Design the sequence.
């Protein structure tokens, strides 16, 4: 749908500029004066100037459309690269799109997603104010969550908590901030608070791997090894994928030592 909308607006702009250029050319061509040689000479020079103005407008319009299309091509390439090629190429394509059209929020979102995949946490955080200026508002929950995770990896826990608390207030059904908040509280050694957050998640979504691992880890760090093992053992009754089960078995081996 987004691609159809982009094509529609670009075609509309091209048709608009073409129509205005045609009207301008016809208007210049229709200029006439009497047989006064002085006026005829002046009109000839004026026509040359006006044609040059029309040509400049057409060239500028074509240049502008070219930038729009090039930016969109880079943007689309960055999305396809996410699935088919390297994260580095994805990043370069998204960066080109932003450089060509820095006022397009979706290009910034593609760039931040690529930076996040590459672990460029500081860059994701530093770009947040620029994204807010482009958006003209606070970042949405997905973009804000990406910034909060980056702050967590940077060890800036209090800043990350401010974002997760805002996201939780705005939408209690959006679970990722609640899970992240649990992990931040574990890092701050607030194990009881972390356990309450993660239990509330598992009451809604008992098959969330990050919540399970976080809860078990909180119990273990608190010194409650038995409860940590119980959390992992209870997963046997739930439909987790093979990789998650392998991870749980590895943790049981670690906590059971």
Sequence:
């Amino acid at each position: 749908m987004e691609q159809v909308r982009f094509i529609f607006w670009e075609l509309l702009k091209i048709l608009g500029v073409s129509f205005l250029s045609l009207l301008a050319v016809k208007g210049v061509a229709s200029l006439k004066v009497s047989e006064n040689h002085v006026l005829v000479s002046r009109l000839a020079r004026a026509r040359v100037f006006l044609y040059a103005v029309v040509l400049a407008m057409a060239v500028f319009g074509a240049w502008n459309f070219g930038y729009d299309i090039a930016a969109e091509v880079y943007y689309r390439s960055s999305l396809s690269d996410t699935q088919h090629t390297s994260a580095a190429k994805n990043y370069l394509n998204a960066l080109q799109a932003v450089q060509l059209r820095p006022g397009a929020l979706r290009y910034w979102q593609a760039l931040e997603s690529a930076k996040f995949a590459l672990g460029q946490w500081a860059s994701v955080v530093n770009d947040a104010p620029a994204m807010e200026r482009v958006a003209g508002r606070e970042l949405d929950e997905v973009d804000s969550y990406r910034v909060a995770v980056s702050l967590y990896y940077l060890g800036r826990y209090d800043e990350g908590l401010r974002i997760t608390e805002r996201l939780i207030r705005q939408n209690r059904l959006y679970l990722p901030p609640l899970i992240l908040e649990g992990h931040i509280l574990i890092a701050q050694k607030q194990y009881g608070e972390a356990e309450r957050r993660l239990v509330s998640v598992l009451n809604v979504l008992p098959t969330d791997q990050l919540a399970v691992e976080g809860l078990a880890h909180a119990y273990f760090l608190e010194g409650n090894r038995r409860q940590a093992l119980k959390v992992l053992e209870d997963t046997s009754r739930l439909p987790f994928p093979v990789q998650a089960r392998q991870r749980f078995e590895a943790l049981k081996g670690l906590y059971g030592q």
